[in-house]
Records
---
Amino acid sequence: MRYLDHCIHLAGGGSQQIPAGKVVCVGLNYRDHVKEMDGQVADEPVIFLKPSSALVPLEEPVAIPVEFGACHYEAEMSILIGEQLGDCTEEEAAKAIIGVGVALDLTLRDLQSQFKQKGHPWDKAKGFDGACPASAFVDRAQVGDLQNLELRFTLNGEVKQASNTRHMITPVLTLIAYISRYFTLMPGDIVLTGTPAGVGPLSPDDQLTLELVDVVSVTTSVVAR
Ligand code: ZN
């Protein structure tokens, strides 16, 4: 499995490689997804981590484990952090964002359900090797309002997830400031901003397209790991 250093495509042309850090994710950040999971909107963001070993390039075939039950896609906007952020303000968070992309928060849903029932941590269900296929990043300077971007996921020609980042329960800057109270964010860390409704299982040979409209679009396929 080839792990990822982040590639960021710069506004002036060219690209830069940045060593991959940890991935900090938020669960249940779109109301329609909370509903499909039979969850309740939490008082505070639900935060979890994926290790850097979960990161793989989305541009290559997505290798899913097939021995642990259903592996669900969750399409999300991803944010690349360029500066150290500890207990930061939203203004500091805004200045530290250097890239915007898309990523899959792959989730072993059967395992996650079992862990939730038992009250156990769900790390194995969301942090396994390859659990975070992530696109190359687009320079923040080339992207407009982070809270008004169309996010779309197409599986075998059928649109499964379509929403706008304006529907996030906790918007990006608030989320980063919140995360930084617990986990110092370092250059090369990624924040995944949650998935809208429409999640479901992946199977080998699936064709998928993940887009942040007018920012980035990646088409890839699924293989068994
Ligand atoms: Zn997610």
---
Amino acid sequence: MERTFLMIKPDAVQRNLIGEIISRIERKGLKLVGGKLMTVDKSLAETHYAEHVDKPFYNNLVSFITSAPVFAMVVEGEDAVHVARHIIGSTNPSEATPGTIRGDLGLTVGRNIIHGSDSVEAATKEINLWFNTDELSDYEQPRNPWLYE
Ligand code: DAT
Ligand code: MG
């Protein structure tokens, strides 16, 4: 089993899409092990997006992420990092495949609905950055034999 970090961005929170997005994640079979609505401070936003510090869009990205609450989550499942990225879709919603979260719900790259960790290493780092261990729940679900061989 693998865990990944997802963050519903301020645009989707403001558009009342939290339920729609969590519903897609749950229906796929991923299991929610942590989740919280929170306002992100500048230092957390800068640490989270540190890899993009030299990009022209970095300042706007930090302003956007700190502009209104986000919904941060940890989800678990087989190959969870890849599966979550796959259902999220391409970075630019105008090019993301219909059926994906960004492809169905977004229009522009600067308002692209949701973040998902892009590797297992990034997921570990981001889960530790955004969540304390006591905010994550270990539990079994009876549905598991119906999701996994
Ligand atoms: P992703 O979120 O798909 O992993 P990324 O890591 O390349 O994409 O970029 C992080 C975020 O930065 C992305 O979700 C939206 C924003 N971003 C990326 N490219 C951009 C661009 N060309 N213009 C404006 N914002 C951009
Ligand atoms: Mg990324």
---
Amino acid sequence: MKQTKSMVLLKHHLKELKLSTMHDECEKVAARCAQDNVDHLGFLLQLCELERIEREKRAADRRLKQAKFPNLKTLDSFDFAAQPSLNKSLISELMRGAYIDERESIIVIGNSGTGKTHLATALGIEACGRGKKVRFCKVIELITELIEAREERQLLRMKKQLARLDLLILDELGYVPASKLGAELLFDIISTAYERTSLIVTTNLPFENWTEVLGSERLTGATLDRLTHRCHILEATGESYRLQDARRRKNRKTLPTARTQIGKAISKAK
Ligand code: ADP
Ligand code: MG
């Protein structure tokens, strides 16, 4: 009876203290500890561990949501054999995230469909799991957002939000040429991030063509200077994964047909 009263009170305190996992689990853990002869320190330790695990999990989920990834692709589903120009050991090293602590950046270059977004997403998800604040943006959408924020006199606020990130992923630099204002706003974000926030930039453009997107040579030079100062370059020179995949499927389809034809030929010969 006394124990029940203590439990009710304990749960009340835990609720007030916002220790929700401890609140939810304390009865179960208490019963288990009594059964296993675990002393009170062991009991408290188990409860604290559960609370921390749950909190870390929730924080990681929150970071993942705030990062706004277009999908949740990881390296597990990435086929390195399909893109042999990529340095697999460098990518594994980058997954460990030290580049973020060093404020280094990554540029992923390659044609459409070569896995740039997939890689950038995988690196970003891993960073979230390691406690980093990440945001994934398509360049064109970021530029639109920046222009809108400027019109609504919210640019400073938006820039402050971006400056709080550990890693900013700029996907698809180069698909659409930016307007003069857009290029300047983007440059501003890149130079603010310089040596403070890591960037991952994916692009289908060789460096010599960046002027086409950013407009002025001066801006392109300054952008490249900042981006490439301390950066890792991942280059996918192979062809589109979708194309390779389509070919594989086609080959698979033709195989049974070929076999059927052989079968027919054999039965005819008989
Ligand atoms: P990009 O951003 O370079 O245009 P994506 O990353 O969007 O290319 O890749 C296109 C599609 O092909 C995606 O569904 C992606 O998951 C898949 N893909 C690309 N490369 C690979 C790869 N090497 N292994 C597995 N899937 C890949
Ligand atoms: Mg892409």
---
Amino acid sequence: MDNSRIARLFNEVADLLDIRGENPFRVRSYRTAARTVEDHSEDLAAVLRDGGDLTALPGIGKDLAAKIAEIIETGKLGFLDELKAKLPPGLPELLRLEGVGPKKVKLFFEEAGVDSIENLDRAAREGRLRGLDRMGEKSEAGIIRAIENYRKHIGRFRLDDGLAAGAKILDSLKPVADRVVAAGSLRRRRETIGDLDILAVSSDPSALTDRFVNLPGTASVPARGPTRSSIRLEGGLQVDLRVMEGDEFGSALLYFTGSQAHNIALRRRAREMGLKVSEYGIFRGEEKVAGETEEDCYRALELPWIPPELRENRGEIEAAEDGRLPRLIELEAIRGDLQSHSTASDGKESIMEMGRAAGRRGYGYIAITDHSRAVRVAGGLDEKQLARHLEEIERAGEKCPGVRILKGVEVDILADGTLDLADAILRECEVVVASIHSSFRLPRKEMTRRIVRALTNPHVNILGHPTGRMLLRREPCDFDFEEVVKAAVGEGVSLEINGHPARLDLNDVLARRARELGARLAVNTDAHSSAQLDLMTYGVFTARRAWLEDRDVINTLPLEELLAALNRPTR
Ligand code: DGT
Ligand code: CA
Ligand code: CA
Ligand code: ZN
């Protein structure tokens, strides 16, 4: 049981209470508790097991502590189920739409009789939403777009959710399997996964299958057999299990890791060499020439082993053949984080706590980049507040030996491309991340001009989460990517790969293209708590899928070289 699941259930409770229009303090107590639990570094199940006192956590009273215990013990929260039973079953799903929160759901339900996505779609298309409180034609069109977007992504899951589910399943299966691993898009670290593919070898396949179809959190069992089974988890994620023989493990892993396009290209190559490839092995006529390991299989095809992140048939087989595979960046090469937030804006921990956590991770530096004033909901800073904040960063740095805490800011790019803070204060910062947090839907030309203009400000070092997309929720901004990258290269501005698993922005394809155009990348977490510094792994997954090496990423540089690299060329 992980803390994030507890947090999710509490957030669901808060949403439902909010939709019902219940006491805002009660709603807030669940949200605060969700955040506390999510950010807590120890597994609460372990805390409970060791006789720890959950009410010692901030904002957790007796009632919430009992609910946490209930979730840990039963995997469920009865109170949430009761709440659900009191509302039309289609209502909570509306919250999955971009720009639709509990208040809107309540409004749509009470004033327009909307109780499902279908209903909402119809109401919006018939123009029945525009008269409602704070709704106009524009917001109505936004609803239609959000629904289209949601339908396009339906049935896919974020990588972090997939990895969390996968880790639990592997742990449960390990005792009844000789070998068990995740394959498919999860192993390739794609940003979203359609389903989860598990491959196992076992001397007791029926015990393995038994355990699999009875895993906790299973909602249904679409298929069950000695070599293939599938389950569907409560959240809707399907998990496929394939049981193979030990001497087929390599070829099976290769096959089920995919991608399908990579497999097809390998098979074509094999055919030209007079070989045949399947999940059972690589064969020349009747003779099996490889199958036990992936390395053996690639070797039989006269190729070096290709990292799973590259297996998309985007030139990796040709590169492997020519000995041109990149030496992909690894997490260990990252020496610091160049976007993080503190309590000065919407972060959860102090500058000092963030700095110490960076030190514990072995980093040489961390930039504290709180929001600027335009992001009012995040408590963004104005010039005066930022000046004071920069002093605090300096003071914290003195008390934090070993890690350099860099004075930074995440300054908003306003709709016209100017920045939200005056040059005089930006000049005082060591790291200026410029990002868009509003007006996401400008026409392409205007958006391109806006971003390019921001990049020409001589103090900007990094373009933060460049496309603004939110996975499965918000489409990227529309702009001329090539033109923006060329401007960034000319100005000496790095492009961010934001490692938050809801963003992964730039994505693999765009980051790769940016590198080809000569851009440097910065892989950052955008951490809002010290625990979130761990999200760096997701940024590195994306960087690897973008074929990046250490030298493409500025935060692999040691401090002095980084500071030199941040210096903008003077013209
Ligand atoms: P997903 O689940 O949509 O995120 O993507 P994958 O890549 O995990 O695809 P999935 O689950 O349908 O199948 C897992 C792997 O099995 C896939 O990457 C390659 C292999 N595979 C599945 N079906 C085929 C097929 O028809 N032909 C070939 N060559 N490979 C296949
Ligand atoms: Ca899959
Ligand atoms: Ca599958
Ligand atoms: Zn941001």
